[in-house]
Amino acid sequence: MTTAVRFRCIFFDAGGTLISSSPPIESVISNVLAGRGASLPPSEVIEAFLEAELERWRSRADFESLLSKGLHRRAKVSMDLAEFSVWLAAEVKKRAPHRNLMAYPDAVLTLAELKRLGLVRGVISNWDGTAEAVLKRLGLAAYLDVVIDSGVVGVSKPDPGIFQIALGKVMATPESSLFVGDALTDIRGGQGAGLRVAWLNRTGASLPSGAPQPDYTIGSLSQVLDLIGQ
Predict the structure, then answer these.
(1) 11, 14, 68, 122: which is deepest, by most CB within 10 A?
(2) If you average pLDDT over residues 47-57, what whole number do you get?
(3) What does each C-alpha distance from 71 to 51, 87, 194 come to in angstroms?
(4) Average pLDDT over every residue of 38-54
Protein backbone atom coordinates (compact mmCIF):
# COMPACT_ATOMS: atom_id res chain seq x y z
CA MET A 1 0.00 0.00 0.00
CA THR A 2 1.35 3.43 -1.02
CA THR A 3 1.71 5.97 1.77
CA ALA A 4 0.24 9.34 0.75
CA VAL A 5 2.55 12.33 0.94
CA ARG A 6 1.48 15.93 1.34
CA PHE A 7 2.77 17.55 -1.83
CA ARG A 8 2.33 21.24 -2.61
CA CYS A 9 3.22 21.10 -6.31
CA ILE A 10 2.48 18.50 -8.98
CA PHE A 11 4.46 18.81 -12.19
CA PHE A 12 3.77 16.78 -15.33
CA ASP A 13 5.55 15.83 -18.50
CA ALA A 14 3.56 16.74 -21.63
CA GLY A 15 3.93 14.20 -24.45
CA GLY A 16 3.00 10.67 -23.40
CA THR A 17 1.72 11.91 -20.04
CA LEU A 18 -0.89 14.64 -20.55
CA ILE A 19 -0.84 14.54 -24.35
CA SER A 20 -1.13 11.57 -26.69
CA SER A 21 -0.70 11.22 -30.42
CA SER A 22 -3.71 9.77 -32.18
CA PRO A 23 -3.21 6.96 -32.91
CA PRO A 24 -0.50 6.32 -30.27
CA ILE A 25 2.84 5.51 -31.86
CA GLU A 26 3.19 2.27 -29.89
CA SER A 27 -0.13 1.05 -31.34
CA VAL A 28 0.89 2.03 -34.86
CA ILE A 29 4.17 0.11 -34.60
CA SER A 30 2.43 -2.89 -33.03
CA ASN A 31 -0.09 -3.02 -35.89
CA VAL A 32 2.61 -2.63 -38.55
CA LEU A 33 4.57 -5.55 -37.11
CA ALA A 34 1.42 -7.65 -36.83
CA GLY A 35 1.10 -7.29 -40.60
CA ARG A 36 4.36 -9.22 -40.90
CA GLY A 37 3.21 -11.90 -38.47
CA ALA A 38 5.08 -10.49 -35.47
CA SER A 39 3.11 -10.40 -32.22
CA LEU A 40 4.45 -7.39 -30.35
CA PRO A 41 1.87 -5.72 -28.10
CA PRO A 42 2.08 -1.98 -27.35
CA SER A 43 3.62 -2.68 -23.94
CA GLU A 44 6.60 -4.40 -25.58
CA VAL A 45 6.96 -1.55 -28.07
CA ILE A 46 7.15 0.83 -25.10
CA GLU A 47 9.80 -1.42 -23.54
CA ALA A 48 11.84 -1.12 -26.73
CA PHE A 49 11.56 2.68 -26.48
CA LEU A 50 12.74 2.58 -22.86
CA GLU A 51 15.66 0.28 -23.68
CA ALA A 52 16.73 2.58 -26.52
CA GLU A 53 16.52 5.59 -24.20
CA LEU A 54 18.70 3.88 -21.61
CA GLU A 55 21.25 2.69 -24.18
CA ARG A 56 21.47 6.18 -25.67
CA TRP A 57 22.67 7.48 -22.28
CA ARG A 58 25.33 4.76 -22.15
CA SER A 59 26.59 4.85 -25.74
CA ARG A 60 25.38 8.23 -27.08
CA ALA A 61 24.33 6.35 -30.22
CA ASP A 62 21.44 7.51 -32.41
CA PHE A 63 18.08 6.88 -30.72
CA GLU A 64 16.24 5.85 -33.91
CA SER A 65 18.93 3.28 -34.73
CA LEU A 66 18.78 1.88 -31.20
CA LEU A 67 15.00 1.68 -31.34
CA SER A 68 15.03 -0.12 -34.70
CA LYS A 69 17.59 -2.57 -33.36
CA GLY A 70 15.48 -3.31 -30.28
CA LEU A 71 12.26 -3.74 -32.26
CA HIS A 72 14.04 -5.96 -34.80
CA ARG A 73 15.33 -8.21 -32.02
CA ARG A 74 11.91 -8.48 -30.41
CA ALA A 75 9.87 -8.90 -33.60
CA LYS A 76 12.06 -11.66 -35.11
CA VAL A 77 10.97 -10.81 -38.65
CA SER A 78 12.67 -12.38 -41.68
CA MET A 79 14.72 -9.39 -42.85
CA ASP A 80 18.06 -7.96 -41.84
CA LEU A 81 18.31 -4.92 -39.58
CA ALA A 82 19.03 -2.38 -42.32
CA GLU A 83 16.09 -3.56 -44.43
CA PHE A 84 13.84 -3.70 -41.36
CA SER A 85 14.68 -0.13 -40.33
CA VAL A 86 13.81 1.29 -43.75
CA TRP A 87 10.66 -0.81 -44.04
CA LEU A 88 9.39 0.06 -40.55
CA ALA A 89 9.91 3.80 -41.01
CA ALA A 90 8.06 3.72 -44.33
CA GLU A 91 5.16 1.67 -42.98
CA VAL A 92 4.69 3.84 -39.90
CA LYS A 93 4.66 6.97 -42.08
CA LYS A 94 2.18 5.35 -44.47
CA ARG A 95 -0.23 4.24 -41.73
CA ALA A 96 -0.09 7.41 -39.67
CA PRO A 97 1.03 10.26 -41.96
CA HIS A 98 -0.73 12.92 -39.89
CA ARG A 99 -0.96 11.78 -36.29
CA ASN A 100 -2.95 14.33 -34.33
CA LEU A 101 -2.31 15.42 -30.76
CA MET A 102 -5.01 14.98 -28.14
CA ALA A 103 -5.32 15.20 -24.38
CA TYR A 104 -5.57 11.90 -22.57
CA PRO A 105 -9.11 11.48 -21.19
CA ASP A 106 -7.84 11.49 -17.59
CA ALA A 107 -5.71 14.63 -18.04
CA VAL A 108 -8.38 17.32 -17.66
CA LEU A 109 -10.16 15.43 -14.88
CA THR A 110 -6.98 15.05 -12.84
CA LEU A 111 -5.76 18.61 -13.39
CA ALA A 112 -9.18 20.01 -12.55
CA GLU A 113 -9.28 18.08 -9.27
CA LEU A 114 -5.76 19.19 -8.34
CA LYS A 115 -6.80 22.77 -9.04
CA ARG A 116 -9.89 22.36 -6.85
CA LEU A 117 -7.67 21.09 -4.05
CA GLY A 118 -5.50 24.19 -4.30
CA LEU A 119 -2.31 22.46 -5.42
CA VAL A 120 0.15 24.08 -7.81
CA ARG A 121 0.10 22.41 -11.24
CA GLY A 122 2.78 22.69 -13.89
CA VAL A 123 4.29 21.14 -16.99
CA ILE A 124 8.00 20.50 -17.54
CA SER A 125 8.52 19.25 -21.08
CA ASN A 126 11.15 18.63 -23.71
CA TRP A 127 9.28 20.44 -26.49
CA ASP A 128 10.06 22.71 -29.41
CA GLY A 129 8.91 26.04 -28.04
CA THR A 130 5.22 25.47 -28.79
CA ALA A 131 4.18 23.52 -25.69
CA GLU A 132 2.08 26.31 -24.20
CA ALA A 133 0.22 26.87 -27.47
CA VAL A 134 -0.47 23.14 -27.81
CA LEU A 135 -1.69 22.91 -24.21
CA LYS A 136 -4.03 25.86 -24.82
CA ARG A 137 -5.41 24.27 -28.00
CA LEU A 138 -6.10 21.02 -26.15
CA GLY A 139 -7.86 22.76 -23.26
CA LEU A 140 -5.22 21.97 -20.65
CA ALA A 141 -3.49 25.32 -20.13
CA ALA A 142 -6.38 26.70 -18.07
CA TYR A 143 -5.57 24.14 -15.37
CA LEU A 144 -1.85 24.93 -15.22
CA ASP A 145 0.08 27.54 -13.24
CA VAL A 146 3.34 27.23 -15.16
CA VAL A 147 4.62 25.66 -18.38
CA ILE A 148 8.35 25.09 -18.78
CA ASP A 149 9.29 24.25 -22.38
CA SER A 150 12.87 23.19 -23.11
CA GLY A 151 12.67 24.97 -26.45
CA VAL A 152 12.04 28.23 -24.59
CA VAL A 153 14.35 27.93 -21.58
CA GLY A 154 17.23 26.20 -23.37
CA VAL A 155 17.58 23.33 -20.90
CA SER A 156 16.22 19.82 -21.46
CA LYS A 157 15.41 16.85 -19.26
CA PRO A 158 17.16 14.99 -17.69
CA ASP A 159 19.20 18.11 -16.79
CA PRO A 160 18.10 19.08 -13.25
CA GLY A 161 18.26 22.71 -14.34
CA ILE A 162 14.90 22.59 -16.12
CA PHE A 163 13.25 21.35 -12.93
CA GLN A 164 14.97 24.07 -10.91
CA ILE A 165 13.56 26.69 -13.29
CA ALA A 166 10.06 25.31 -12.70
CA LEU A 167 10.50 25.26 -8.94
CA GLY A 168 11.73 28.84 -9.00
CA LYS A 169 8.73 30.01 -11.01
CA VAL A 170 6.29 28.80 -8.35
CA MET A 171 8.63 29.30 -5.36
CA ALA A 172 8.49 25.63 -4.35
CA THR A 173 11.01 23.21 -2.89
CA PRO A 174 11.90 19.82 -4.40
CA GLU A 175 10.77 18.10 -1.20
CA SER A 176 7.24 19.49 -1.60
CA SER A 177 6.97 18.55 -5.27
CA LEU A 178 6.03 15.51 -7.31
CA PHE A 179 6.87 14.97 -10.98
CA VAL A 180 4.78 12.68 -13.17
CA GLY A 181 6.15 11.37 -16.44
CA ASP A 182 6.34 8.36 -18.74
CA ALA A 183 10.02 8.32 -19.78
CA LEU A 184 13.37 7.50 -18.20
CA THR A 185 14.44 11.12 -18.67
CA ASP A 186 11.55 12.05 -16.39
CA ILE A 187 12.67 9.66 -13.65
CA ARG A 188 16.34 10.50 -13.90
CA GLY A 189 15.84 14.26 -14.23
CA GLY A 190 13.20 14.63 -11.56
CA GLN A 191 15.09 12.61 -8.98
CA GLY A 192 18.32 14.37 -9.91
CA ALA A 193 16.64 17.65 -8.99
CA GLY A 194 15.40 16.22 -5.67
CA LEU A 195 11.73 15.68 -6.59
CA ARG A 196 9.84 12.47 -6.05
CA VAL A 197 8.81 10.90 -9.33
CA ALA A 198 5.75 8.91 -10.34
CA TRP A 199 6.33 6.86 -13.49
CA LEU A 200 3.18 6.75 -15.60
CA ASN A 201 3.00 3.25 -17.10
CA ARG A 202 -0.22 3.09 -19.09
CA THR A 203 0.58 -0.13 -20.97
CA GLY A 204 1.98 -2.35 -18.20
CA ALA A 205 5.52 -2.23 -19.61
CA SER A 206 8.58 -3.25 -17.59
CA LEU A 207 11.56 -0.99 -16.99
CA PRO A 208 14.81 -2.27 -18.53
CA SER A 209 17.57 -3.61 -16.32
CA GLY A 210 19.75 -0.80 -15.05
CA ALA A 211 17.11 1.89 -15.49
CA PRO A 212 16.51 4.46 -12.75
CA GLN A 213 13.70 3.37 -10.44
CA PRO A 214 10.76 5.71 -9.79
CA ASP A 215 9.45 6.50 -6.32
CA TYR A 216 5.98 5.45 -7.47
CA THR A 217 4.47 3.65 -10.46
CA ILE A 218 0.95 4.51 -11.60
CA GLY A 219 -1.21 3.25 -14.44
CA SER A 220 -3.30 6.37 -14.94
CA LEU A 221 -3.20 10.05 -14.06
CA SER A 222 -6.13 9.66 -11.69
CA GLN A 223 -3.85 7.67 -9.40
CA VAL A 224 -1.91 10.85 -8.70
CA LEU A 225 -4.78 11.72 -6.37
CA ASP A 226 -4.03 8.58 -4.35
CA LEU A 227 -0.42 9.71 -3.92
CA ILE A 228 -1.47 13.00 -2.36
CA GLY A 229 -3.97 11.37 -0.05
CA GLN A 230 -7.08 12.70 -1.76
Answers:
(1) 11
(2) 95
(3) 10, 12, 33
(4) 95
Query: Three-state SS across 142-188?
Result: HHCCEEEEHHHHCCCCCCHHHHHHHHHHHCCCHHHEEEEECCHHHHH
Q: How far is CA 124 from CA 102, 164, 199, 202, in A?
A: 18, 10, 14, 19
* pTM of the shown model: 0.92
The whole-angstrom separation of Cα 206 and Cα 158 is 20
* CB-based contacts of 35, cutoff 8 Å, min separation 6: 91
* 30: number of Cβ within 10 Å: 21
CATH architecture of 9-21+101-227: 3-Layer(aba) Sandwich (3.40)
Least Cα distance to 19 among 165, 118, 149, 155 occurs for 149
Which candidate, 31, 41, 38, 50, places its Cα nearest to that of 95? 31
Q: Where are the domains of the chain?
A: 9-21+101-227, 24-95
Distinct helix (H) and strand (E) counts, the chain = 10, 8
Q: Which of 78, 54, 80, 60 is nearest to 68 (CA)?
A: 80
What span, in angstroms and rounded, lies between the C-alpha atoms of 101 and 158? 23
